[in-house]
Design goal:
Blueprint: H1 5-17, H2 43-51, E1 57-61, H3 65-68, H4 72-79, E2 84-89, E3 112-117, E4 126-129, E5 134-138, H5 151-168, H6 176-179, E6 186-187, E7 190-191, H7 193-201, E8 208-210, E9 213-215, E10 244-245, E11 248-249, E12 269-270, E13 298-301, H8 304-307, E14 310-313, E15 402-407, H9 423-428, E16 433-436, H10 438-444, E17 451-456, E18 459-467, E19 474-476, E20 479-481, E21 483-487, E22 522-528
Parallel strand pairs: 1-2, 2-3, 15-21, 16-18
Antiparallel strand pairs: 4-5, 5-12, 6-7, 8-9, 10-11, 13-14, 15-22, 17-18, 17-22, 19-20
Helix pairs in contact: 2-4
């Protein structure tokens, strides 16, 4: 399937640069920033570079890395090494106000901080895509208060201003990516989310005939199957091609589910091409009959399309016929269902992984044991480690004998920016707590409701002890291990007695492939305040 990559990439460049992207200039490819060989641009690496003074400016757009990122104290001190920080959010937060935080001296911080108040979700129109790949359109219910503006309005005006300064400065360095950028997403001088949604879907750039169908310049591309590599099509994201077509905004559909199995095919839209189940042809046998007829996602109907045959149900992951014909002979026009894999088959291995193609159990970077009971290698040899003065790791350290984990509670969302300021939610979960077993509480002489200090090599937090049966000691290699758990929704800004982020305790390390931080297992100690 990736043989279509040139069509997707050229269409993306046309979406970015419009008429300025031509075949003669490689459709503006040279205007794009390039990743350096051997570099990783993950969250952990970003803040490591920031702490080492390699990053000058940072947009914290709807983010609160002073609380959300692993090793939060390092993140906060990294922010102090920036020249400028733009914080776009709805409430005061630990990132935008880091310079006033614990251990900070504003007189010694050079970072110039800009706070831009923005609209919440019900104060702006646009789409949201969930982890199930559904793109759902939201409508505006109210105007944002005061000087708050929708993110789109902020971005539009910011880029227009950048373009203005580049046009004005005749000595501007490498102006082409800025001045040639297509930037026509306004209606009556205001940000128009429908124009952005259409741009992401893609347009035909001239009158063309594709797959026997005629299209006019300005028509919306009906599917990524019609994208071309000759500059005749644009698409901001090929996966979203088909989301906004000449028929209308597919993500705004609101028809009730009719299949009876939860497909909801006409409620909103699902990337790609409204396919609700990826690789859905794997749910049928070689004749196209569902393995489970009572819950059929898709099935082959030989009488469909005037007797030519066709798939009924979900949008097929490729419209080819079943593997076998009705008489049992091989169908030469078919393809295997896993079309994104070179072999067309599902994998039980993952080629290209940094730590090898097969699953392997490793202990976390921090832990209470010095031996992996499963194999001779205790930790992942390719796990990212960092080497600043604030990157401290410990294993089997008697100062930190307790395993800790972090998690969420139902009443709060992420670092709590949205929920700590809502009195009814804050009343339900007002402050940082640490859960521990009755056995650990007895060992530490801690009573339920008492304030305690939880500390790791990287920092400490004050929390309310919750003594519970939810946590119990367990044995590893004959050794009794205790565990505690803390939510990470809090910060020093508000409420004043709510405690700080549990990520002050967590280490800067993670998965070697995704760089997802390893905040679910690390070592701490707990003591009475």
């Amino acid at each position: 399937w990736w043989g279509n990559y040139p069509k997707y990439s050229v269409s993306l460049l046309k979406s970015l640069f419009g008429d300025k992207a031509t075949k003669e200039n490689d459709f503006g490819y040279q205007w794009l920033p390039k990743a350096d060989d051997g570099r990783v641009y993950s969250w952990l690496d970003l803040f490591d570079d920031m702490y080492n003074g390699k990053i000058k400016g940072f947009f914290a757009w709807g983010q609160n890395p002073a609380c959300s990122g692993a090793n939060a104290d390092k993140n906060r001190k990294a922010l102090a090494k920036l020249d400028w920080l733009v914080n776009v959010n709805i409430f005061p937060n630990e990132t935008g106000w880091f310079w006033k935080g614990p251990g900070m001296d504003p007189k010694k911080i050079k970072t110039e901080v800009f706070f831009l108040p923005c609209a919440v979700s019900v104060e702006k129109e646009g789409s949201i895509t969930n982890s199930g790949r559904w793109m759902q359109w939201r409508y505006k219910a109210a105007d944002p208060p005061g000087f708050a503006r929708a993110d789109g309005d902020i971005i539009i005006e910011l880029m227009q201003k950048v373009k203005y300064f580049y046009r004005k400065d005749k000595e501007a360095v490498f102006p082409e990516p800025i001045l040639n950028l297509k930037w026509d997403y306004t209606t009556n001088w205001k940000y128009d989310p429908h124009k952005v949604a259409k741009e992401i879907n893609g347009y035909f750039q001239r009158d063309v005939v594709v797959k026997g169908k005629s299209f006019k310049k300005g028509d919306l591309v009906p599917s990524f199957a019609y994208l071309q590599d000759d500059g005749s099509t644009s698409s901001g994201n090929w996966l979203y091609c088909n989301s906004y077509t000449n028929k209308g905004n597919m993500s705004a559909r609101r028809k009730r589910e009719k299949e009876g199995i939860g497909l909801n095919s006409e409620w909103a839209w699902c990337w790609p091409v409204n396919r609700r189940i990826l690789y859905n042809r794997a749910s049928v046998d070689k004749y196209g009959k569902p393995w489970n007829p009572e819950r059929a996602v898709i099935r082959w109907d030989p009488n469909a399309k005037g007797g030519k045959g066709g798939w009924i149900g979900d949008v097929p992951d490729g419209g080819w016929p079943p593997m076998l014909k009705a008489d049992g002979s091989l169908n030469p026009k078919t393809k295997y269902p896993f079309i994104m894999k070179p072999q067309g088959h599902a994998h039980i291995f993952g080629p290209g992984r940094a730590d090898g193609p097969f699953p392997e159990h490793y202990e976390p970077i921090e832990g209470p044991v010095d031996k992996n009971p499963f194999s001779s290698q205790i930790t992942n040899p390719t796990a990212p480690l960092y080497h600043t003065d604030l990157d401290i790791y410990c294993r089997c350290d008697p100062k930190y004998p307790i395993v800790a984990t972090t998690y969420r509670v139902s009443e709060h969302w992420q670092t709590g920016i949205l929920t700590r300021w809502l009195p009814w939610l804050l009343e339900a979960q007002p402050q940082l707590f640490v859960e521990m077993s009755k056995e650990l509480a007895a060992l530490k002489d801690i009573r339920n409701g008492e304030r305690v200090i939880v500390e790791s090599p990287r920092g400490q937090v004050e929390a309310v002890a919750i003594v519970t049966n939810r946590f119990r000691p367990f044995k590893v290699l004959g050794k009794v291990i205790h565990q505690v758990g803390l939510p990470w929704h809090y910060g020093w800004i508000y409420p004043k007695d709510g405690g700080d982020s549990a990520n002050l305790l967590t280490p800067s390390t993670g998965d070697p492939n995704t760089r997802i931080p390893e905040t679910k297992a690390f070592m701490v100690n707990v003591r009475k305040k």
